[in-house]
Every structure is written in structure tokens, then in C-alpha cells.
Amino acid sequence: MGCQVYSTGNNATPPSVAIADGAQDLDARKVAEGLVERFGAGGMDPRVRALIPDFDAPFYQAGLAGYSDAAMRIIARRHGCPLCVTEALLDRTLLAGGRGFAKADLGDIDGNIPGGDEDHPLVGQIMGSEPQEMAAAALKMVEQGQRGDKAYRKAAYKDGTPDWFREKLRLPGGEQIGKKGLTSHLPQGDKALDVEPLAPSGQSLVPHRSFAAIDINLACPVKKISKKARGGHWLTDPEGAIEILEAVREALPPEIPVTVKMRRSFDDTPEMYENFLRLFDAAYGMGCAWVTVHGRTVEQKYVGPSRWDPIKELVQRRPDQPVFGSGDVWDVDQIFRMIGYTGVAGASVARGCIGNPWIFRQARDLLEGRLPKAPTIAEQREVLEQHFELALASNADYRQPEKHTGRTMRKFGIRFAEHHPQGDEVRKAFIGVESMDDWRGVLDNWYAGNDA
Ligand SMILES: Cc1cc2nc3c(=O)[nH]c(=O)nc-3n(C[C@H](O)[C@H](O)[C@H](O)COP(=O)(O)O)c2cc1C
Hints:
Elements: H1 28-39, H2 46-49, E1 59-61, H3 70-78, E2 84-85, E3 89-90, H4 91-95, H5 99-104, H6 106-110, E4 122-127, H7 131-142, H8 149-156, H9 163-167, E5 213-218, H10 238-251, E6 258-263, H11 270-285, E7 291-294, H12 309-317, E8 323-326, H13 332-342, E9 346-349, H14 358-367, H15 377-394, H16 401-416, H17 423-431, H18 436-446
Parallel strand pairs: 1-9, 2-4, 3-4, 4-5, 5-6, 6-7, 7-8, 8-9
Helix pairs in contact: 1-13, 3-15, 7-8, 7-10, 10-11, 13-14, 15-16, 15-18, 16-17
The protein binds flavin mononucleotide.
């Protein structure tokens, strides 16, 4: 997991309404209608579709560390989500061939029933501190590691493999390098290529079904590691961040879009806002496809509402380029209110879709002139069954896949329970789940009625 602050409780922040004067008076249905009138079916900005044709509606499932794995993504897609982003993956974890890479490795998922063709288009998100590491990790992602681990590491560490890689099972941020241990990731059997990995000579190694884009995380509020910036802390050092963006953009084949996720500033000082603008402009200037702006500061983490006015100002600053928005998108109305208020090309749906894939179906409903409906108990049961099965399949390589899946699914169950009329009791029932039988037991007890 790349960005650990996210999974340590801050996501429990109760839903808030973004600060945006008058946004709550906007009629979501009318905004959706306006988008379809302007852009045609789906309501997506054609500049975005020109880059990723299947990204055909103005919203996507955000990276959500600890949540947005293949199972959650596939459930979202089955409900109409046009694009998903992986959680932030640390460049070092990727280069070490760690669990992060396995999780995001489409080929691996393909072999395990879920994922594969259903899990596209997928944006891979990376986070880190060194331009060369970030560039090599990004290339490894889009090439799906085809050159062999050693070649990417050689590109990242020109002066030789660093000590941390040889000696440590745990990386400086505490991330585990794969549960099988370090030895399985050492370069034995690597098919290192005799080419300069960061300057592919015209020959594309990007497989047909790879990541549709690479997103660079300049937003995560986790503290610096070893005095090195990463994530949102780069907003205090825009020149360093620009080096990273440039290195990644340069390393990837031109047909792979590079996008950026940023907080609206590090804090509310004018100096930090200047830094933000410097980075925002530089990202577009060097050819990044779009920036998603989260309307909270890094310092704010998840405390307090998001602000949509700064996002609106940024859209006006770059009318020639798509900008996406994030922050306080809790339900389908907020997707379209954010778009209507700020003018963004689309909204990133984050906490609003945990245990709520129906937000995507409802958004499609609005775009297609239908009245959005809440999920019936039967629909909820169907999704709960599918989600567990998908999670179990993608956890097949764990020592105790069912136990692991049972435990990791509790947090989803708790959020799904919010749709149930007896939510409190259902939530308690999900908390005790250890196995698929337990999960099915909750479904039999609470989701047996058919109200469809
Ligand atoms: C549990 C959790 C994990 C997150 N993980 C990531 C991540 O890996 N990458 C990322 O860009 N943003 C991540 N975010 C931030 C969200 O994508 C989003 O920007 C933020 O939650 C604001 O949107 P919201 O208020 O609608 O939830 C995470 C947020 C939460 C709550």
C-alpha cells in the first residue's frame, strides 16, 4: 500500500458539503442534460476521449489505498464506471517487484478469473521521491515488466542497486516487499535487455492491455520519509516535483498519457499557492494530459470540507486543457454539481463510492435521462456476493485466502450496510466476518428478502 495515512482512520470523516456558494442549488439532472447536449452521449469532453476512448463519461473511481483493488474496480465497472485508478504505488515497491506490482499487474489478475478484459481502462498511480526511480517504475508499469526486473532497476539506480534494496524486507515507509520475501524478487532469471531502458528506441514494449495512463501522486499527505518529499509534500518543492514529472513524461512512450493528482495547495499561505500554480502550469506545459485537483490542502488531510472555488479558478486558468476535480463527491448529485459549479471535465469519486457502486449507475441514469434509483435489497445482495468472490479470486496467492478476504471485506460490508434499512445491525454482523460462510450467513440473515 502506497499512502498509509489513508487507511489509518481518516476516511471515517463524516460526509461534508464542499465550500462552494450556490453549488447545492444546482440541479444535477440539468447539468447532466447540458453535458450531453454539449458533448453528445455520455457527456464526456472529447479532448479526454481522444486520449482514452473508453473513458466515455465525466467521472471516475479514484485511487483509494486499501480499497480500490481489482475487486472493487470491477464491481464499479459493472455499474457503469468508465475508468479506475489504482491506489498510489510506491516507486520503490514497484521496482522491487513487490505486492504492489502484483496487485496492479493485469496479466496476473487475468489468470485468476477476475480482472483481465473487464478491468480497463485502468490508470496506474505512482508516488515517490527520486525522478529516476519514478521514471523506471512508471515504465515498468506500462510495459508490464517485460524487460525483466533487473533492467528497470538498472535504469533507476545507475550507480548500482542501493543497500536498502539488498538488505531490507521493509522499505523506509514501512511497506512490505511482497509476502514471499525478498529472495523471490532478486534478479535471478531476469532477462535484462541490452537496451537503455529509459530511452526505448522507437520500439514499443507496451502490451495491448496495459495501463491506459500513469498518474503521478502529488497529493498524499503522509509525512516525508528520510527527509525526502513525496506525494503532497512535493508542493513545498515545486522544482523537485517538476524534475519528477519531466523524468516520467520523458521515459514513457508518447502515446501513454501522464496525469497528475494534486492537492489545491500545501497550506493556505500565498507562498504555497504560488508553488501550486508553478507546478500546475508546468504539468500542462510539459504535456501532461490533465491534472486532478483535490480541493483540500495537504495540511488539511481530510479534516473539514473541500473547496470548489479554487478548482473553478483553475479551470478558468486553463480553458484549453481538461482539469478534473476531487473532494466531497458523496453522491450522484455532487458529481454533477461539482462539474456544473467548477466546469471540470469530470469528477473523481472517492469515499462516495466505497460500498456504493450504484453511484456510477445513477450517474449513467442521469446522463441518459432516467431517474436514478437506490439499490434494492436483491441488488445489494448480488453485489455483496460478487464482491466477495472477486476479492477471494484475486487473493488466491495468500496463505489463507478466505480468512484474509473475510477480514479485508469487513470494511466494505460496513459501508454497504449504509444502504440497508437495518444498517446498524447489519454493520455489526459484517464486523464478525472471518470466512465466505460467515459472509454468506450475513447475506442470508439480512439480504434474503426480495424487494425488487
Ligand atoms: C481511504 C482513502 C484512500 C485514498 N487513497 C488514495 C490514493 O491511493 N491515491 C490518490 O490519489 N488519492 C487517494 N485518496 C484521496 C481520494 O482519491 C480523494 O482525493 C479524497 O478522498 C477526496 O475526495 P472525497 O472527499 O470525495 O473522498 C484516498 C482517500 C481515502 C479516504
